[in-house]
Write a structure and sequence with these properties.
555 residues, mainly alpha, globular
Length: 555
């Protein structure tokens, strides 16, 4: 029964994440149409709109996402009120902390923009600050969404947390459609801060923040349906937050290290925005921060849809097994989880590498410079996509330590990895031209993911013993053969669509890119499934079971 329940929960969460991601891609594509891809305005808005999420994660995100679930589960089981008092006080504390953080950070919008950019002109800095003033209040609502979502997850109400971002994306899509109707699509003539208007800022930045607000508020309804009678409560002594605070401290350290490094990478990438203006022509072939973040978003789709959904559900199982010191069950969960997610991540990597160009074309905007922008973004996507399975392994193995309420080990791992990469990134920033720095960062990220998986494996074996890593590696090798065969089939189909020729059908427009992706994707999927069957990859059944179990007559 537990396996079936896990399968159903994973399927519901994966469906919600998939819908949200698809809508998110539509939003990102429309944003490129509205303000361009490798453009000054695109990079300025990307910087301002990315900072709130990173600062939230930097200061509190990890605490909410991985520390609170075990604490809420314990409070729910050990207290007669089902954890109502604990959750009420937790929510009250969260709202106060988030409000204070948001007010302080928003007041420092100007200095923050200056600190996190390189070689920007005064006009770029001023517009970036205005965008930030509209976007930074998102920090409060990111936090509210996260903590309420974790309460729902701890109560096994998994679907709402994954489906709420759909609301955000629908609002954002509506805002961007209205923007294009009122102000038109991107034009090189308006690609400067001096040509930007207050009305454009209000609609673009204000509408984006409105979507984040509604994403958080929609979770308040299912929270009220839990029947806990939650209300504001102050006074946090003696309710068990001490233990959570110790774990949260280590987790916060991990997030500070990781996201501080990410802020540095973004600062280095911002130099491409200024460097692009020194290039003859449009400079559309120079990838900037928008291109790097968008390529990362695309490359992470298999992880976001499959790995995150499975890991969120299995995290509860790991927490229960760790609480009872059932290490055999922990090892089995890790083993089966890694092998199952490999079916999705290895195929995802193959798709990202083979179809990098057409995928990037979806988010390169319109106009004569779009193919050049897509080519630059496609290079980033191919590099990042090839390494994403390793990032998923690292993420999943990290859950082993958080389930045990050990946040110190992830901090050690993150410090080793981020410290090394930061040093390399700083050296790259001094040696590489600004027009090439973003591609260098993409290669660095790919290497980072590979090393992170190896490091997480080492620490996991030290903690729980051999979880059958040899069996996992063997599964990935067999799955890899299937992914390679699918890649060859997809590459052949892409060649027929002119994907390797300048001006070929695959890259002419967003529509032709969609057609190419659809046909080549189907060819790759069929080839992959046939090869998995031929190679007798048992993990295919484990991966498909949550989907098949929800079909009529297959309950």
């Amino acid at each position: 029964m537990e396996t079936q329940s896990t399968a159903r929960a994973s399927a519901v969460m994966a469906a919600g994440t998939l819908v949200s991601r698809v809508l998110g891609f539509v939003r990102t594509s429309l944003l490129a149409v509205a303000i361009g891809a490798n453009t000054t305005m695109g990079d300025i808005f990307e910087k301002a709109n990315t900072i709130p999420n990173i600062i939230y994660l930097l200061l509190a995100g990890g605490v909410f996402n991985v520390v609170l679930v075990p604490q809420i589960i314990k409070a729910s089981k050990n207290n007669d009120d089902g954890g109502a008092d604990y959750i009420s006080r937790l929510l009250s504390l969260t709202l106060l902390v988030l409000a204070a953080i948001t007010l302080v950070v928003t007041a420092l919008a100007g200095p923050i923009i200056r600190l996190l950019t390189r070689d920007w002109t005064q006009g770029m800095l001023e517009l970036g600050t205005i965008f930030a003033l509209w976007c930074l209040p998102q920090i409060f609502f990111y936090g509210l969404y996260a903590v309420v979502g974790q309460v729902l997850n701890a109560k096994s109400r998994f679907g709402w947390y994954m489906w709420a971002p759909v609301v955000n994306n629908v609002v954002a899509i509506g805002v961007l459609v209205l923007y294009i109707v009122l102000f038109g699509s991107f034009s090189r003539a308006t690609d400067s801060p001096e040509a930007w208007t207050s009305e454009q800022t209000l609609l673009l930045a204000g509408g984006t923040t409105l979507g984040i607000i509604l994403q958080a508020l929609v979770l308040l309804w299912p929270l009220s349906r839990l029947g806990l009678g939650l209300k504001l409560k102050f006074g946090w002594r003696g309710i068990g937050l001490g233990r959570a605070g110790k774990v949260a401290g280590w987790t916060l350290g991990t997030m500070v290290v990781g996201n501080s490094a990410y802020l540095l990478y973004g600062t280095i990438a911002s130099s491409a925005t200024a460097g692009r203006q020194e290039v003859e022509g449009s400079g559309a072939g120079v990838a900037g921060e928008y291109a790097l973040n968008t390529a990362t978003l695309i490359a992470m789709l298999p992880h976001s849809v499959v790995v995150l959904s499975i890991a969120t559900v299995l995290f509860n199982q790991l927490s229960r097994s760790q609480a009872h010191r059932q290490l055999d069950e922990v090892r089995q969960t890790v083993n089966s989880g890694l092998r199952t997610i490999g079916v999705a991540t290895m195929f995802g990597a193959a798709v990202m590498v083979v179809l990098a160009g057409p995928l990037a074309r979806l988010f390169a905007g319109s106009g004569p410079t779009a193919p050049a922008s897509a080519a630059a973004m496609g290079q980033l996507l191919a590099v990042l996509g090839a390494a994403m399975p390793f990032m998923s392994i690292y993420f999943f193995l990290g859950r082993v330590f958080y389930a045990e309420e050990d946040a110190k080990t992830p901090l050690v791992m993150q410090s080793i990895l981020s410290g090394t990469c930061v040093v390399i990134a700083l050296v790259m920033a001094q040696l590489m031209p600004a027009t090439e720095i973003v591609f260098g960062l993409a290669v660095l990220f790919a290497v980072f993911h590979i090393l992170s998986a190896l490091l997480a494996h080492f620490f996991t074996v030290r903690r729980v013993g051999d979880y059958g890593a040899g069996q996992v590696a063997e599964s990935y090798i067999r799955i890899g053969y299937a992914a390679l065969g699918a890649s060859l089939a997809g590459a052949a189909a892409l060649w027929l669509f002119g994907g390797y020729q300048p001006g070929g059908f695959a890259m002419v427009s967003i529509f032709t890119a969609i057609v190419t992706i659809a046909v080549c994707g189907i060819v790759m999927a069929l080839a992959y499934l046939l090869l998995l069957k031929a190679l007798r990859v048992a993990e295919l059944h484990d991966f498909l079971q949550p989907i098949l179990s929800r079909l009529p007559g297959r309950g």
